[in-house]
Amino acid sequence: MKMKWTSYPYLLWIIIFILVPLVLVLLYAITATEEHISNLEFTLDNFNRFLDPKYFDVLWVSVKLALQSTVMTLILGYPIAILIAKEKPSKRNILISLFIIPMWMNFLLRTYAWLTLLGKNGIINFIISQLGFGPLDLLYNDGAVLLGMVYNFLPFMILPIYSVLVKIDNSLMESAEDLGANKFQVFTKITLPLSIPGIITGITMVFMPAVSTFVISRLLGGGQYMLIGNLVEQQFLWVGDWHFGSAISIIMMIFILLTMAITAKFDTQKKGSRGLW
Amino acid sequence: MNKTYIIELENISKEYDGIRVLDNINLYIKRNEFLTLLGPSGCGKTTTLRIIGGFEQPTEGKIIFEGKDITEVPPYKRQINTVFQRYALFPHMNVFENIAFGLNIKKVSQKEINSKVKEILRLVNLQSFENRSIESLSGGQQQRVAIARALVNEPEVLLLDEPLGALDLKLRKEMQIELKNMQKRVGITFIYVTHDQEEALTMSDSIVVMDKGVVQQIGTPVDIYNEPKNRFVAQFIGDSNIINGIMLEDFKVEFAGKVFDCVDKGFDKNESVEVVIRPEDLEITIQEKGQLKGIVTSITFKGVHYEMIVNDGTIDWKIHSTIMKSVGTKIGMIVAPENIHVMKKVTRE
Ligand SMILES: Nc1ncnc2c1ncn2[C@@H]1O[C@H](COP(=O)(O)OP(=O)(O)OP(=O)(O)O)[C@@H](O)[C@H]1O
Ligand SMILES: [Mg+2]
Question: What is the pTM of this model?
């Protein structure tokens, strides 16, 4: 493939900010701790260390939470996307901005907000105590982390689904109805299959950050809470074992790539399928 | 209520945000008829069709199907199928699945679906196209799939919204004949929308000429062409010379300073009228013999005939003829009494 010279800055960007760091991470992952860069020792020990059940537990909880938040954002996001897509164009844009504008606010800030909402002296516990109950432990558990993920990642599910839905020609739904399909059948046979590309994008865009997050889990899960993202963070920032940290990152990356490949496969299968009867 | 009518539109009006786009439409459609809604862009053809299909609710009036009021019945419960203006084929299904859609919904057995789809594919000349994806089809093929998808359900009525609009001239002509033959063969009522007057004239049993949401004239193609009710219809259907005249008495009309015999009657004495003469009905002769005399001022070759403009001193007459007279030639023109069409003058507000 011939490339235009205008693509060179882009290539340079990719090399400096994506390729070089990746190679470095890979290099760290497959080398042992050494004082000098001159005598590198290649090893797979860093990966072997991960085979410890306690790390498997962390991976399992991370994947479980990421899957749960993906499913929940899908269940919440799909109907919202449909409702917005059904509105008139002018109203549509206002509604969709309602979901985008909070994303302009700092991610940390938005997550901190939940701390004050859910805390022992937070607003929710205050209301509950006024009713004569509580206080409840709303923070520092799976539920709080899940809530934080769903809240933060919901727009990433709504947006791709919405943008696929608004592009579906309304006459497709009308002709399905014309051919005898009731509203429910129109949804299952036309709207849903045609929105699968949006669902796939949404799932990828939610699952990837969810499985690797460490901010939400630390803030809402508390200091002891360990997801795989926290594990990487811990190795780099506190333990100082960049080699093990890199190995975990790569395991996480492989995991994400695998899930993406599976979802992509699902996408193409659907397209070529002999209908959904 | 009449048994011969399959669909009746009674006093249908439609408003969008207070703007009236259909005004008091009354339409009686016979079983097995090929009826065409004809009119310029924006006159309300699609809206009328969508009201019949159930996709739009009329602001006033009602729709009667086989004697029953179906105004409130949703589209999926109507025995009417539609071929949409842009086909609206399902992109995630192949040709077979598209055509089988309606039958699958009705829970027809797989065996019956297979044979019906095969049969309809033969009818639209698309054998062995079952497994083709929609995007791999040409415009004309997509259009035939759209027709097959509707026809396979054996509807009582088929609505077609400018189904040939996207095709080139040659394919359009072929499809016109094919569609007409199909309609005769399967024997169902077609309600066809077009803004192409030639298409309407060749295909229809009856034509409804519409303008600005109002029905201007309903009639057979021959009636509409030969006896246009008003200036709009005369101008919209075919080329025409429209001149002011005075109806002296029954069968006598004066225009262009001369008195002509004609076949129209029933006007007031000396009523002001409009006279329509089709360009091909003006016959060229030598000047002495002409009822009208003039000088050829322009000439254009139109393929089968020449179009000439002949000025008689006040009026520019348009003539279609296979005989060519060069610019500047003095000629005479004759028009037979049955080719003079007298219309009531509409005083436009
Ligand atoms: N949903 C709508 N909201 C507002 N106005 C509409 C709507 N649908 C149609 N109209 C208006 O109604 C009028 C008739 O439209 P319609 O689509 O029936 O025209 P048409 O005869 O089919 O024209 P064309 O030949 O261009 O398809 C137009 O002026 C159009 O702008
Ligand atoms: Mg239209």
Answer: 0.80
